[in-house]
Amino acid sequence: MITIDISTLYDETAKLAQLDEYVLQAKALAGEGKVVKLTGAAPVWLYLKIAHALHGKAIKLYYDSPASGEVLIFNHDPH
Asked: Which domain holds residue 28?
C-alpha cells in the first residue's frame, strides 16, 4: 500500500493556485495500479481533487484519519 500524507504536498497553507502541482505530486507518489491511502491534515477540496485524479490510476483508494479510521473510497480490483 502506498500512503500519501497530503499535508506534505504543501507548505503551511494549501493554495488553490497550486492545485495542479499538488495533484501532479500525488499522482507521481501513487504510481500505477497500486492500493493508495490518503491521510494527513489538508483541506477537503484538496482531498477531493486528489481522489478524483487518482480514479483510474489507483486500483483501490482509502482515506484514513484518527476520527474515521480507514475508509474505502473506491475499489477497482477485479479479484
From this structure: 2-75
User: Number of folded domains in the chain?
Assistant: 1
Query: How much is the pTM?
Result: 0.92
Asked whether 58 and 42 are in contact (CB, 8 A), the reply is no
**H or E stretch covering 51:** helix 44-54
What angle in degrees, to the nearest 10, is found between the helix axes of 19-30 and 44-54? 50
- Which three cell numbers mark 45? 477540496
Give whole-number Cα distances, 15 to 1, 2, 20, 32, 46, in Å: 28, 24, 10, 26, 9
Give the pLDDT confidence of 20-66 residue by residue, as tens digits: 999 999 999 999 999 999 999 999 999 999 999 999 999 999 999 99
CA nearest to 77, candidates 65, 61, 66, 64: 61
